[in-house]
């Protein structure tokens, strides 16, 4: 059972998302909050698998709550609810340790898939959000993209051949179990590789590793897919 704390300052949106999540027998909403401070308190009380947070809330916003939750409760993943108007927040959320991004206006099935992927140890970027992230990474022009690509390729030179294969699949959004199936190894071995990758590349989580994989050219420009 995936236990979720849901935070959004709009009551109607919370009710809609709760209804969507409750339709999945594998998901339980254990608490609802109207701001980031309430969400953090609920995480402390319930220790959920995932905190599903709106970006913009009065008082403590979703980005501040993300940083606090990931620092205090590394076992709780954070998935950010976002809109196209909030592209500027994505980089901050990444640096704060968010594991996924889902559009509020997206397909409800996407929300369910994203939570399952993150709960299974994967990273998830809504297809539309992924496209915007890639566009944001390229916003400084060709020279900037080439510079970041060269830097990313230099960084991934620190990992082994097998770790590079795992990193490419992280870039596709695959969970440990899915990576294990793809490569014919055990999930435990994948977990070891992932830990080594995050350490060697000095990234906080799988989303950051996935973006690095994109910048290095390990994954075709497009959209990460999530697999549970």
TrEMBL record:
Molecular-function GO term, any one: DNA binding
InterPro entries attached to this UniProt entry: CheY-like_superfamily (IPR011006), NreC/VraR/RcsB-like_REC (IPR058245), Sig_transdc_resp-reg_C-effctor (IPR016032), Sig_transdc_resp-reg_receiver (IPR001789), Tscrpt_reg_LuxR_C (IPR000792), WalR-like (IPR039420)
Taxonomic superkingdom: Bacteria
CDD domains: LuxR_C_like, REC_NarL-like
Transmembrane segments: none
UniProt KW DNA-binding keyword: yes
Keyword Acetylation: no
Domain Response regulatory: 3-119
GO biological process: phosphorelay signal transduction system; regulation of DNA-templated transcription
PTM sites of type 4-aspartylphosphate: 54
Domain HTH luxR-type: 152-217
Keywords: DNA-binding, Phosphoprotein, Transcription, Transcription regulation
Protein name as catalogued: LuxR family two component transcriptional regulator
Organism: Murinocardiopsis flavida
């Amino acid at each position: 059972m995936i236990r979720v704390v849901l935070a959004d300052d709009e009551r109607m949106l919370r009710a809609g998302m709760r209804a969507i999540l409750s339709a999945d027998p594998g998901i339980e909403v254990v608490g609802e909050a109207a701001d980031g401070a309430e969400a953090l308190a609920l995480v402390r009380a319930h220790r959920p698998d995932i905190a599903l947070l709106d970006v913009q809330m009065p008082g403590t916003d979703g980005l501040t709550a993300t940083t606090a939750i990931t620092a205090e409760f590394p076992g709780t993943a954070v998935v950010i609810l976002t809109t196209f108007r909030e592209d500027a927040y994505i980089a901050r959320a990444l640096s704060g340790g968010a594991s996924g991004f889902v559009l509020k206006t997206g397909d409800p099935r996407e929300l369910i898939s994203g939570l399952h992927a993150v709960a299974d140890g994967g990273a998830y970027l809504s297809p539309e959000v992924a496209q915007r992230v890639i566009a944001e990474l390229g916003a400084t022009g060709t020279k900037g993209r080439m510079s970041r690509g060269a830097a990313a390729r230099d960084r991934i030179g620190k990992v082994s051949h097998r770790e590079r294969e795992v990193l490419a699949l992280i870039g596709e959004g695959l969970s440990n179990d899915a990576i294990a199936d793809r490569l014919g190894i055990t999930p435990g071995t994948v977990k070891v590789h992932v830990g080594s990758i995050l350490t060697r590349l000095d990234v906080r989580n799988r989303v950051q590793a996935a973006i690095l994989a994109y910048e290095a050219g390990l994954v075709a420009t497009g959209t990460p897919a999530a697999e549970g």
